Amino acid sequence: MARAISQDFLDDLKTGKLSSLLERVLADDTLDLELRGKCINIYYRGGSLFRITEKVSRTYEIFFDLNYCDTEAWRNTGIIVICNPTIQQAVKDIPYYKQAMDMWLHKNPKYERECQQLLVRENNNQGDISKSTDYYILDIEYADSKENRKSRFDIVALKWESKSSVRRKPEKCSIALMELKYGDGALNNKSGIKKHLNDLKSFISMKKGELDDFKKDIETVFKQKCQLGLVDGLQEKQYEVSISFENPEVIFLFANHDPDSSVLVKELTDINCNDYKGIFDIYIAEASYIGYGLYAPRMKELSIFQRENCCIYNR
Fold first, then answer.
1. Pseudo-torsion of CA 20, 26, 27, 32, nearest 10°?
2. Of 26, 186, 203, 293, which alpha carbon lies 20 to 30 A from 57's?
3. Separation between Cα atoms, residue 246 and residue 156, nearest integer Å
4. Is the dihedral of CA 181, 187, 189, 191 positive or negative?
5. What is the pLDDT of residues 138-158, one digit of tens each?
C-alpha cells in the first residue's frame, strides 16, 4: 500500500491550510506524523490522535476516535471534544484530546506502539543523536495489501550509516525491515518470530514490478518526511536517496526481555538460518548501553546469537 502523499497534501502541510498542525507536531516531541497515502496519522503515545484524510478540491477531514473518551476519569472532567474538528479546533484542543487518550491508555496501555514511537523520535528527529544513528524510520505499522501476502511489519527503515563518507552518497542506502516484540509474552503467540520471518520472505521475494513500486514509494516517503521537517540533520541534496534491495536486513528488537526467561532463546534457536540464506540477513538489535538509537555495530547476526546461547537452550 503506497504511503507517499500527493504534492497538494504536502504543500498544504508545509505552507497551506494544514501548516498549523504540522507546526504543533514539530514543536511537540510526544507527537509523530506518519504518511498513509490518502491520509496521514498523527500519533500520540502509540495511539492515533488524528487521522487527516485528503478529500476533493484540497479539503481535509480530521478524525478523532471518541472511544478514547470512554473512561470514567474522562467523563468526570466534564470536557467535551468532537470527532471531526476543524483544523483550528484540532490545534486549539490538542491538550484535551491528549488528556482523554492519557486516561484511556492508563487502563488500556499500548506499550509496544509507544516503544515504536520512541524509536522514530530517537532515530529521526532527536538532534545530534539522530545524526549519529545508522537507521532512519520510514514507516511504522506497514501493511502489505496484496491478497497473496497480507503481511504487516512493525517498522520499515532506511539503513544509511552515519559515517561522513557514506552520508555524502545518497545511493549508499539499503532497506531494513524490523519487528518489535515488547515483553516475553509477545514472543510465541500467533504472530511469533517464525511467522514474521516467513511473511518477510514472501514480501522480499515479490515480483520485480511490485518491488520497484515499493522502492519508489519509500524513497518518496523519505524525501517527503525530510521536506516536512520530520528528519533531522540532513541537507536538502541528501533527500533524494536511492535504496538498494541487494542486501536487505531483517532486524528483531526485543524490548524488556526478562534474561531469566528461556522463551527468547528457544524461539531464536529453533530458527534455521539456511531457510532465509540469500534472501535477507537476520539481526538482533542491541542497545548502545541503554536507549533507542539504532547503530549498525550493535546489530548481532542471528547465527552468532544461536552459537552463544545454544548451551542455555540445551541444558
1. 110
2. 26
3. 16
4. positive
5. 999 998 766 666 678 899 999
**Which three cell numbers mark 133?**
544513528
Query: pLDDT at residue 313 above 50?
Result: no
Helix axis angle, 87-107 to 19-26, nearest 10°? 40
* DSSP symbol at 27: T
Q: Where are the domains of the chain?
A: 7-107, 111-313
Q: Measured between alpha carbons, how far is residue 219 from residues 90, 135, 207, 296, 313 in Å?
A: 30, 14, 18, 21, 41
Measured in Å, how far apart are the chain's first and last C-alpha atoms? 45
Q: What is the distance, to the nearest Å, from the Cα of residue 151 to the centroid of all Cα atoms in its chain?
A: 15
- The Cα–Cα gap between 139 and 221 comes to 8
CA 14-26-6 angle, to 5 degrees, is: 30
CA distance 193 to 176: 16
DSSP-derived secondary structure letter, 193? H
Candidates 154, 156, 183, 133; CA nearest to 291 is 133
Phi-psi sector, 132: left (phi>0), alpha (psi -120 to 50), beta: alpha
Alpha-carbon distance 18 to 14, whole Å?
A: 7
Assess whether pLDDT exceeds 90 at residue 83. yes
What the block records as the C-alpha cell of 55 is: 478529500
Q: Are 23 and 42 in contact (CB under 8 A)?
A: no
